[in-house]
Amino acid sequence: MVREEEEESRSDEGVFYALDLGGTNFRVLRVQLGGKAGGVVHQEFTEASIPPALMGGTSDALFNYIAEKLANFVAAEEEQKFHQPPGRQRELGFTFSFPVMQTSINSGTLIRWTKGFSISDAVGQDVVAELTKALQRKGVEMPVAALVNDTIGTLAGGRYTNKDVAVAVILGTGTNAAYVERAQAIPKWHGPLPKSGEMVINMEWGNFRSLHLPLMEYDHAMDVESLNPGEQISEEAAFFGDEVHAKLKISFILRTPDMSAMHHDTSSDLRVVGQKLKDVLEISNTSLKKSRIVVKLCNIVTARGARLAAAGVLGILKKMGRDSLKDPQKTVVAMDGGLYEHYAEYRGCLENTLRELVGEETASSIVVEHSNDGSGIGAALLTASHSLYLKDKS
Ligand code: BG6
């Protein structure tokens, strides 16, 4: 548990901005809030992928790039004559989905990078300060009012419109979950209890380990490889010929959309599988029999991942006492991320497993919902609830 935040719910109005960094794509959002009754009136966003060179470069280079995208977004709205009320600066929420030691609502130091990023001079730095410096370099005056991660943002965004949302899960480039806990049930918390009696827990569940979930040799192989490139083990040939194809040795070369396309191939000759193997891995002339095995492999890997994620959600429901009919309160689990959104077999397996785990009767009170862009909207909402101008508005 890296961060605990008191949940806030206030009625706010105005236009707020969010930067969302942490998945495959980076987003800049503008969200217009219409107060308690109005909800989210309007939202717009622009999206870009982070150039691979910046993922392993310097902190300045990454934050300059982000700041430039925001500057362009704001410049474009100047042309549309979109202005803030006089005397009021634009305010920004920063969704930064990496492990952070959060020191206040708008500051936090990066503990480590994940998801393919590796920018050593940013580790240990306050990511809000890094962003603010880059914004100043680009001449953008926009205070960061809230630093959140994608699970917290998704939870806040979901809960804004539906109080039954109590859990948020991201299943994409990385995975993590957050949920609403009774403050009294948090042994680490020694401060005053919040009025609502509730707090949000960011689980950072990617760090979870349990003797009940033994690591397989493939887990070890991936782990070793991720920490120490070059020490890859578990190399066996035979399936696609006597030698391991060069492309097969490249980490992460087979991306989720490729695997999903092969897994969902309904053609009788599995031509999508053949094509993907050729295009991505440069393996040609795969027999139908081998293509069928590839689909089965996709199924095994997907089912394992989906069942593990469902087990994680069950763990949260159990902790909240929402895993049985004793508490018939409806619980909505807000989910987001490319894996959940675009991989139908994965999503189906996760939802079926969850139903299987809680039982049919309880399953009717647990709803899994896709929360599209929830994290960016959530960051804008948290910005609104921590706005510099809040006092002036009351
Ligand atoms: C997006 C959210 O929809 O999903 C991000 O806005 C989140 O905050 C992302 O990090 C995760 O998905 P992926 O597939 O991009 O890693």
UniProtKB/TrEMBL annotation:
A GO biological process held by the record: glycolytic process
Pathway(s) per entry: Carbohydrate degradation; glycolysis; D-glyceraldehyde 3-phosphate and glycerone phosphate from D-glucose: step 1/4; Carbohydrate metabolism; hexose metabolism
EC assignment: 2.7.1.-
Domain Hexokinase C-terminal: 167-236, 238-384
Highest taxon of the lineage: Eukaryota
Entries under InterPro entries matching the protein: ATPase_NBD (IPR043129), Hexokinase (IPR001312), Hexokinase_BS (IPR019807), Hexokinase_C (IPR022673), Hexokinase_N (IPR022672)
Entry keyword annotation includes Transferase: yes
UniProt entry keywords in alphabetical sequence: ATP-binding, Glycolysis, Kinase, Nucleotide-binding, Transferase
Residues annotated as domain Hexokinase N-terminal: 12-160
Gene Ontology molecular function, alphabetical: ATP binding; glucokinase activity
Family: Belongs to the hexokinase family.
Protein name per the record: Phosphotransferase
